[in-house]
Amino acid sequence: METSIVGVGVGITDRFRDVVEEKAARIENIAPRAQRVDVKVTHRGYHKGRVEDETVELTVSGKGPIIRAEASDGDKFTALDLAVDRLCEQLRRAKEKRVDSRNHPRGAKFEKGTGALEGIDVEPASADVLRAVATGEVPVVTGSESEEEYTPVVIRTKEFEPEWMSVEEAVDRMELVGHDFFLFIDARTDHPSVVYRRKGWDYGVISLTTQAQPQVA
Fold first, then answer.
1. Which CATH architecture has domain 110-207?
2. Interstrand relation of 34-44 and 53-62 (parallel, antiparallel or unpaired)
3. What is the pLDDT of residues 70-100, one digit of tens each?
4. Could you give the maximum distance between any two Cα atoms of the chain, in Å?
């Protein structure tokens, strides 16, 4: 399996590369179909002399969906161990889920007659959250603000190509990347939607009423 290591604000030593290669062998043992693991180590310094730490992000790609995990610690080797443990746990759960799906039917069912989706909770987004986003009450830090404008809230922006899938597939993908939400296009309605994790093992779905148009190659 191919490995790639990138350091942001921190140097990558030969010793760290050797440890990564050892961890990659462990990952490959659990996920033999994986073809590449990308390791990103980021040094983060907090405002006003707070403790600095290292964040290790792991991204495994190959045949199947991309799987991610990350962890932070004052020592990058410890952060790497934690990230690998989380990644391997996600890989094991994904493997067990594939086996279980072959032996048992999925819980969520779509009733064509009524249009109801059973087995998964669907509810609209909170009006307070939508209002806060629309009015700009949530500040965005770009890195150019002065000391007086400092805020601990940071919003990172990412863009992805749209993917059409079922709600169940979106839940599976969310679990694989280790996030609390996953953005997708509902293949049943063509509506941009988000699945998210609620308390316990409950999930929710938020959908826009506007339909997305498939891209023409």
1. 2-Layer Sandwich (3.30)
2. antiparallel
3. 888 888 999 999 999 988 888 887 777 666 5
4. 62
Predicted TM-score (pTM) above 0.90: no
At 150, the pLDDT band (50, 70, 90 cuts) reads: very low
Domain spans of the chain? 2-103, 110-207
Average pLDDT over residues 102-108: 54
* DSSP code of residue 48: G
Q: Cα(19)–Cα(17) distance, rounded to whole angstroms?
A: 5
Tell whether the model's pLDDT for residue 113 goes beyond 90: no
**Of the candidates 127, 117, 124, 120, the residue with the CA atom closest to the CA atom of residue 189:** 117
Correct CATH for 2-103 of 3.30.365.10, 3.40.50.300, 3.30.160.100, 3.30.450.20: 3.30.160.100
Cα 176 from Cα 164, distance rounded (Å):
17
Q: Token digits for 112?
A: 């064509």
Three-class secondary structure of residue 64 per DSSP: strand
What SS3 state is found at 2?
A: strand
